[in-house]
Specification:
It is a single chain. The protein has 79 residues and is mostly beta strands. It is built from no helices and four strands. The chain has a four-stranded antiparallel beta sheet, with no helix packed on it. It is globular. The model has no long low-confidence stretch (mean pLDDT 84).
Length: 79
């Protein structure tokens, strides 16, 4: 429980408004390009960020990304 397989090329949907001006918003769909993990003491991998390809983005990508690729990071806000 609480685990989901992440497969490069799988369809993904953004469920938060990360960058409204660039089009990375709730409901934005795309495909998974890569995943960055941390590994805990039990050798379990935990995703901390991923790169997605989304045709609906409209801003310049970061210098190491291709057109229409965006980085999505884990939510780290504790309330």
């Amino acid at each position: 429980l609480g685990r989901i397989p992440l497969v490069i090329g799988m369809p993904v949907m953004i469920t938060h408004n990360f960058d409204v001006e660039s089009g990375i918003v709730n409901g934005c769909v795309g495909t998974l390009v890569s995943v960055r993990y941390t590994v805990d003491s039990m050798n379990w991998r935990h995703a901390v960020s991923c790169v997605i390809h989304t045709p609906s983005t409209n801003d310049q990508p970061l210098s190491h990304l291709e057109s229409n690729q965006s980085v999505v990071i884990a939510d780290t806000i504790d309330v």
